[in-house]
Amino acid sequence: MPLLSQSQRERINRVLAARYLIRELATRQQMRPVPVVPNSSLQRPALELQVFELQKDGANNYKFVYRNGATLTPPPPHGAYVWVVLPEEPGRIFCGGPLLPAPFNIDGHTSLTDRKEVLYAGQLRLFNRRLVSWNHNSGHYRPDEGLRHVNLIPAVRLLLPGHLFDPCST
After folding, report:
1. Cis omega before residue 74 (within 30°)?
2. Rounded to an integer, what distance in angstroms lies between the CA atom of residue 131 and that of residue 169?
C-alpha cells in the first residue's frame, strides 16, 4: 500500500514544479546581458549557412544544426568555435568557426550577433563530436567568468558542463 495517495503525490509534484519555476524566474531576473566592448573592431555579419546551433544527440555526442532548419549539411563538430547565447533565445547556443574553410568561416563573435548584447560568449573545442572544453574568451564581449552561473539556464548548462569549463583554454 502506498504511503501517499495519488492526489497527494500530484499535489507534491505541483508544489515542486512551482518552486522550480519560481527559482528559474528569480534567476532570469538576475541575468545581466553583456554588451559589446566599445570601439571594438567591426566583423562582417555571418551568413545563414555560417551559423550553427549546438545540440546533443547522445550521451556526449554533439551535432550542429542550422538555426532555421536549412537542409544544407553543416560541417562536423570538430575543432575550435566561437559561441554565443542571446538574451532572446537563452536556451540555445549559436556557434561559428573562424578557422573553418570557406564558405563556413566567420570573423568572430559579433559576426553571430550583429553587435547585439549576449548573455554569454566564448570559445569551445570539440574533438570527434565530443566537447573537450569551453571558456568565456571573447575580445568583443569579455563576459565575467562568474556570469556563467547566472546567465546560463539549465538547458545550456547541460550542453556546457561545468567540469569542462576552462577559463584559460583557447
Report:
1. no
2. 13
Q: Does the pTM exceed 0.85?
A: no
pLDDT beyond 70 at 21: no
Q: How far apart are CA 48 and CA 77, in angstroms?
A: 17
DSSP 160: S
Question: What's the CA gap between 111 and 19, in Å, rounded?
Answer: 38
8 A C-beta contact, residue 118 and residue 143: yes
- 45 touches 111 (CB < 8 A): yes
Could you read off the pLDDT of 97-150 as tens digits, one per residue? 988 888 889 999 999 999 999 999 999 999 999 999 999 999 999 999 999 999
Residues in the chain: 170
Of the candidates 32, 51, 48, 53, the residue with the CA atom closest to the CA atom of residue 120: 32
Residue carrying C-alpha cell 546567465: 151
CA distance 87 to 116: 9
What pLDDT is recorded for position 169? 60
Q: How many CA atoms lie within 13 A of 159 on its CB side?
A: 26
